[in-house]
Amino acid sequence: MIKLLWIDDNLDHDLTEKRMALYMEDDIDPHFARDATEAYLRLREEHFDVVIVDLRLPPGPDDMWNEHRENGIQKFGYVLLSYVLSQIRNDFRHLSDTHFGVFTIEAQEENPELFLAPISLPEQNFKMKTHAYYENAFVDFIRNVHKSWQ
Amino acid sequence: MAIILLFNDPDRFLGDEWLASAVSIAITYIVFIMGVPALIFQTFIPDALRNIYNEKLGVRGSRFLLLQIILILFLFLQSNHLIYDLEHQYDMPEWFVTLFVIGIIAAILYLGYRYLLHNFYSTRNIEQQLSEKIADDAIHYFAEHKKLGKKDLEDLGLLARELPAGRVKNIFLEQCERLVEYLLNVPNKDRDTKLIGEILENAVCLSATYDGAQVNNENMRKVLDILILTYSHTHRNGMREASTSYLNTTIGNCMKEIGIKAMLKNDLPSVMDAVEKLSAIESTSREMFVLGNEALQHGHVQTTVAVVRKLGGKVRHNTAPGDTLSYDDKRTYYFWLGLVAKIYQLRGSAQNFAERQLQNVVLRFGDHRDEVHALFEETRRHFYHLADFATIDAVRELEEVLFPE
């Protein structure tokens, strides 16, 4: 069973079908978060096998993002990933065997920093959102992220 | 204009008549300045908020009125012969008296203008000011007495019920969040989870679940955010188990109510959000069952599926054949099985889904068939104690299908 956390603010809009498809898969135990604060709170407390992040994520209510907010940063998905993975030996030790993936509207070339430390995302764990990206393909993407090395 | 009037006719300079006119004009002006906002206030602000406003912020208006009366009194006294004679007796320079009178007139006009502008600012501003003021008062009261003022709690409850949906209500909820955060961050010895629970229940939750409350999707999401933030804070800081248990119950119950309210409004995103957040809280299997069951009755099968998967995740997480389950884990099992049985009753494809859920969990018991039977038996007994006869029947029906012998 893959315990999944999918972090995306569009879960209730254009991603509702993918969300429901995950509930219908027997080998996936899906959990969801809509903003960086909610995701941060879940990640700090729980272990997940796979975490899928949208890069353009709202920060949510916590003051911890204020500095980035003031600097006009919009990619709180990236900020969250950097924060968690840079603390992977400390506060987020329980996520050391978690597989991280990115599912976003942006192209891979626009985000070269994702593939550098501290995130060091494997290229196959990056998927661009497109209209033609069907539910089955998305579920397979999650299974592949789970199998990936990190 | 006043200067031209004063200096062009030295004979009547600051004469009685002129000053009497100035006083009467000033009084008319003040009556207008005070009357127009009062009329708007009476017309557009609901009764309940008007009373709180008068108690909390009304003192501003009375101070302004007092100040204006004093200024007019100065003008009025200036027109009196005795004062005039007194000024001559002490050789007070005329330019000084002139400046004094002009200063008073300018002050009356300017203060009146500011007051009018302030009051015209918008009715939304009044609600925002009230929310801020009550939260500030509650914080100050707690800092002094280590408890919350009864009146502040009542006022928060009143605003929760009366404020319109949308941005205004979200501003109120932000103030509640500020108050809750303050109470969560006070030193351990002063922290009172009962108080935090009261605010969550009687203000935050009530703003979304009260029968007549106006609430939209954005407000429900905000309430859910405040609840989950409070839970995370208490969970992270390892507060005393008994007190967090009370808070968890309050938070879980509130999330369930919001989920049901959103369901009745056909607001599926908020329902799913409530399910997601509810599942992240410990010991909320009953609330999840109620929400899932209610969704089933209203035809929102997707919500029930989400609840079954969430409860199933907890059950799987907790069990292995031969394990001794805690009371809480057993309850999760009962509620999960009850909901699966209810889905099974839907027939057709729903039965496939229910069977798959059972395969994933119950069949893990393998040869321990007696444990499975015991589980069904205990589940029926559990729902009997809750007088939920429909679920008992559903569980019995499922058991008979699974184990026909």
Kindly describe this structure.
The complex is a heterodimer of chains A (150) and B (405). With 150 residues, chain A is an alpha/beta fold. Chain A has one domain (2-148): Response regulator (Rossmann fold, 3-Layer(aba) Sandwich). Chain A has five helices and five strands; from the N terminus they run E-H-E-H-E-H-H-E-E-H. Chain A has helices spanning 16-23, 36-45, 66-70, 76-86, 135-147; strands spanning 2-7, 28-33, 50-53, 99-104, 126-128. Chain A has a five-stranded parallel β-sheet, with helices on both faces. In chain A, helix 1 (16-23) crosses helix 5. The longest helix of chain A is centred in the C-terminal third of the chain and has 13 residues, at 135-147. The radius of gyration of chain A is 14 Å and the shape is globular. The relative contact order of chain A is 0.18. Chain B is elongated. The interface between A and B is medium-sized, with 27 and 23 residues.
Provide keyphrases for this structure:
heterodimer, A: 150 residues, alpha/beta, Rossmann fold, 5 helices, 31% helix, globular, B: 405 residues, mainly alpha, elongated
Q: State the secondary-structure class of chain B.
A: mainly alpha
Runs of chain B in which pLDDT lies below 50 for 5 or more consecutive residues are none
CATH architecture of chain A: 3-Layer(aba) Sandwich
Q: How is the quaternary structure best described? A: heterodimer
Question: What is this entry, summarized?
Answer:
The complex is a heterodimer of chains A (about 150) and B (about 400). Chain A is of the alpha/beta class.
List the helices and strands and how they pair.
The complex is a heterodimer of chains A (150) and B (405).
Chain A: E1 2-7, H1 16-23, E2 28-33, H2 36-45, E3 50-53, H3 66-70, H4 76-86, E4 99-104, E5 126-128, H5 135-147
Parallel strand pairs in A: 1-2, 1-3, 3-4, 4-5
Helix pairs in contact in A: 1-5, 2-4
Chain B: H1 2-7, H2 16-44, H3 47-56, H4 59-78, H5 81-89, H6 94-120, H7 123-145, H8 150-162, H9 167-185, H10 193-209, H11 217-236, H12 241-264, H13 268-279, H14 285-297, H15 301-318, H16 327-344, H17 349-361, H18 369-385, H19 389-402
Helix pairs in contact in B: 2-4, 2-6, 3-7, 4-6, 7-8, 7-9, 8-10, 9-10, 9-11, 10-11, 10-12, 11-12, 11-13, 12-13, 12-14, 13-15, 14-15, 14-16, 15-16, 16-17, 16-18, 16-19, 18-19
